[in-house]
Protein 1
Amino acid sequence: MALLSAADAEQVRKLFSTMTSDVHLRLYTQRLNCDTCLEAERILSELSEQSDRLKVEVLNALTDAGRREADGVENVPALIVGDGSHGRIRFYGTPSGYEFSTLLTVITDAGTPGDRLEKPALDFLSSLAEDLLIRVFVTPTCPYCPRAAVTAARMAAASPRVRAEIIEANEFPDLSRRFRVQGVPRTVVNDLIYLEGALPEAAFARGLGLALPLLAKGEPVDMAALLSKPREEEESAGK
Amino acid sequence: MIGLVAGIVGQPSGPAGRRDVVIAGGGPAGLTAALYSARYRLSTVVLEGYQPGGQAALTDRIDNYPGVPGARGHELASLMRSQAVEAGAEIVPARAVRSVHSEEGFATETDSGTFESPVLVIATGAAPKKLGVPGEERLYGRGVSYCATCDAPFFRGRRVLVVGGGDSAVKEALHLAGYASSVTVVHRRDALRAEPVLASKLLKNPVCGVIWNSRLLEIRGGDGVESVLLETPGGPRELEMDGVFVYVGRRAETDPFRGLVELGDDGTVVTDGTVRTSREGVFAAGDVTGRELRQIITAAADGARAAAAAYDYLQHHPAAV
């Protein structure tokens, strides 16, 4: 049975029909020790039938080890999505449930010209002096998650300094443990800045601006706590 | 596998500006108001905020929405959303920050620009209430959660506490029972307030237990929840616990409308019994009002009434458009 219902397929075709350039999707899977790889392959294969703009490549993480290393892929299934010029946005795990709408959004973004972020976030990105790795932990049943994941992906698309990893927390218990995920969405930036919940993109950019100067201490930084401080205090903390 | 949710997330909002009807809130009340309003051929924008589908989308299974037995909350919400869009409503990810009355009607400031309109529908719903006990805020996301649908899988084989005795508490306790090794419900009374069908399911579930006439005093733990301190009829009692899910009611999200319309002591928008508020041209729908029954179907019904009232209002105040 198809994963996409006829009505959903129709909706996806309509969405994709607005794209004006090709979108490249590179999926790494393997046959052994990967319960969800087949499912990821099926989702991608059904998706690719909905538009000629999607250029899909399925690689074997074991036999195509050279490519995998070049892409810096550490887990499977891994899906790298972009306009072909970069590999800064990736999904670890099966993009099902709400995460599927995140994937559709990231694909449509990549295939359509124009800025996806508004000015405050773009200003923040253009002032970035360091590289960011934004990990967003999600589950397929979490309706708040796409917002957090899409914001991270849009930042990665807009700046060569930013990479976004959208991680299905259930599928990677070791990663979830390492970054102490007990609720989603949980965003972890450069291993130390963390945020529970989804924020409007401008607030997220502001929170990053406040948190980054504190990273030098090497201690975890709670972004929500920074943002809840009154403005004046916050401005001096950001300096 | 939970299926695929097709749809697009947070497109950048179209230019803010003037519409016939601005609807704050994207749950069943707001989406139904949008559907009706768009079908009245009024230019309509929904300020969806950051919780598409509202509380409905967070409910795993819904058994009392007629015509759709066994609905999944997020599916129902996403159907309502696409139906409103098909009808011509615009849905933007903006969140209302403040709404004021002006000569031209209402100006609703959001985090993505200001929307003006002669008519405003408040449908911002309600958010989970916090308990306000020590440890709750510090351990949020570290074992303390308000969303079992989101976070249940992290408690596979572990012990969780559910606080509350209403429909939501019992529904979510049953959802958690599919993952956790034990689900302890702590309730301050000696009987559940939840509807009988749900209550008896809970009482029969071998994974679930209830501690009656008790309340949670403190959530303890270093980097995660380790134990909870309860006040019970037999005195204080500490229980080892891995997670705490709080369902002790909801608080109406009305801060942006303070000063614009009359609010009740509990923060809900005061209405005339249907959708009219203390200010002409402003209507309220769904859980944001103080109505006795807070269900998806009553929210949707309110939404339809609010749109009809908006249409009627614009007919009688043509100068407002």
Protein 2
Amino acid sequence: MDCPVCDKAMITAELHEVEVDYCASCNGIWLDAGELEILLGDPKQADSAVSSFQPVSGANHPVRKCPICRKKMEIVDTDGTGVVLLDRCRLHHGLWFDRGELPTILQRTSLDSSGRIRTLLEELFIRNPGKE
Amino acid sequence: MWELIRVNRRNSILLMAVMAGCLVGLGAALGGGFAGQDGLVGGIAVALAVWAVLAMISLTAGDQILLSSSQAVPITPEIHPQLFNVVEELKIAAGLPVLPKIYMIHDPTLNAFATGRSPKSASVAITSGLLARLNRDELQGVMAHEISHIVHRDILFVTLAGVMLGSVVLLSRIFLRSTYYGSMGSRRRYSSRGSQGGAQAQAILFVIAILAAILAPILVQIFYFALSRQREYLADAGAARLTRYPEGLASALEKIAGNTAPLSTANEVTAPMYIDTPFRGGRALHLFSTHPPVEERIRILRSMSQGAALKDYVKAYRQTMGSETGLPLSVRKDTESVDLRAGSSDRSTPANEKTARRQMNDWARRASGFLFLPCSCGVTLKIPPNYSAGNVDCPRCGTRLTIPR
């Protein structure tokens, strides 16, 4: 799978039997719908986590292509203020987080009701030397 | 069985003839439209040449095209010993001359198919999603169904139809694009006057695009006939006979029917076919649907209480469906007896489905050349074969790991 931003091959990181793909050169993160299903244990919950966000138009945000189907992704608003945006595949193949988006998004929203996505992403990508 | 094999041969020849007819018609229309009488002959000649190339390709490499377009990777016994074990058993039971090549498709959906030219050069493919969810008896049922398609020679026709359909879809897309861009170009270049020749060529291309657009769904229908209901019932009957355990396939079908995996790339390719079918609604839908309702297939398999032979399947079919008219005569007249066997002791699904799915994905990745780098902090990094840098930082703890290439 290639990074939607820089087209380089993405690396897959597995933690607690769930995989997250990320780009080693731009630090973007791809959260795959199939992996969300494994993480949340239920396809319906996984889909509702992906589809909960509202799409926004005319945002000052580059359009990316889904790494799975190569179709243009839509830009969605994560917290209703139109400030923190991320990309979502229109066919719900997954979510793309640009570099820098992740900490802000994780601060403001848990992404799913159980908070499991947030915990996983924090553990994998937000380094916290005091905790380890 | 010979009756089935004969019908499949005849259908394959018919399909090639229909395809030749369509291409010659298109060639004649195109050549005649561009250059009158001389063009007509030329157009037909070109069309026949295209047909010959297409036929050669689909006969010699059709299975490889279908397998690579579904991104199937060949797997080895080390990757999934149980699958090899099951297929080897079935190869002996079915009397196949060689072991079919075994492929895995890295996809969360639940599916499997068989392709090839003859039992001597056949392949079976299964998605990693299905492989992760089935126990041994169910896996055996699914593989026996696919191997029955090989024994019945369904695979040649389906492979031919698949390649032909794919090329028609491709052609119609090329034509549609070229008319689109063609009209854009001419609007810019000849803003007011327009060019006589260009307009004519465009009109012809447009007609071709429409013809191809009409042809494609018809070929889809032929493809659907290829996987007709009768073939599916017969492959189910064959699977019950080979495994002597109809419940295995029945419970696998139940799992496949109950699954609601998210849309994958494979579904995206097949979905337009469903929407585009010109025979929608009412009785037509009933006539033209390819796979019989899965509940019916399960019910038939589950009511095979006295044996696993073809005659027992016919009996169960009659009980469930009211008559046996959907089955060919040779199968209805079959007298061989086959006893049922008990289910194997390992009836459980893979204990932890999450772990099983992870393992299956990992096998699929290893098979396609990924390197696995475990970091001491607990994260495993999976490096794709086209990753060029020599090292990588663990995103969790920041440790720099060297990629051993």
